[in-house]
Write a structure and sequence with these properties.
This protein has about 160 residues and is mainly α. The chain has five helices and no strands. The protein has helices spanning about 1-35, 45-80, 85-105, 115-135, 145-150. Helix 2 packs across helix 3. The two termini are about 30 Å apart.
Length: about 160
């Protein structure tokens, strides 16, 4: 029963971390988009700032949807291996973004196809930011449930 509770708690932490990562990647992409249009924080129109409150969670839904399967594989690997370093998650986020780019590249008629080099780098950067924020929220404790539940108990001497 105790192990089941540990699994459920870890699963909830993983879902929370995935939500945080999706929001962070979305915020990164939104800010890059505004910067590419020439908006600076000092000169941003109040409407542009207010629109971020809607567009960041909205784009995060797409980020979460398109990155779910590759991210689930990466998270499972990280949990089994007990990877807790931020660099692993940053590179894994780039891999997840790269898998997304590869999938949409195979469907040329897709509205989500990314072909410009700057846009590809932005998506890869968004994946890296998402990976780092996943590490902040959940990755630092990856495999902790695994190590605790499989390690032998303290010896009684």
């Amino acid at each position: 029963m105790n192990r089941l509770v540990a699994y459920i708690v870890r699963f909830a932490i993983i879902l929370f971390g995935y939500a945080v990562a999706s929001l962070a990647a979305s915020a990164f992409l939104n800010i890059l988009f505004l910067a590419s249009l020439g908006y600076a924080p000092a000169q941003a129109h109040p409407a542009a700032t207010a629109s971020l409150y809607f567009s960041i969670p909205f784009v995060a839904l797409f980020v979460a949807y398109f990155g779910f399967m590759p991210a689930a594989v990466v998270i499972l690997i990280a949990e089994i291996l007990g990877r807790r370093d931020w660099l692993f998650y940053a590179l894994a986020g780039a891999v997840v973004a790269g898998v997304f780019l590869g999938l949409v590249d195979n469907v040329r008629d897709s509205a989500f196809a990314v072909t410009e080099a700057s846009a590809i780098m932005a998506v890869l950067g968004g994946g890296m930011v998402g990976g780092i924020f996943y590490w902040f929220a959940a990755g630092r404790w990856a495999g902790s449930w695994w190590k605790v539940s499989t390690s032998p108990g303290p010896s009684e001497s």
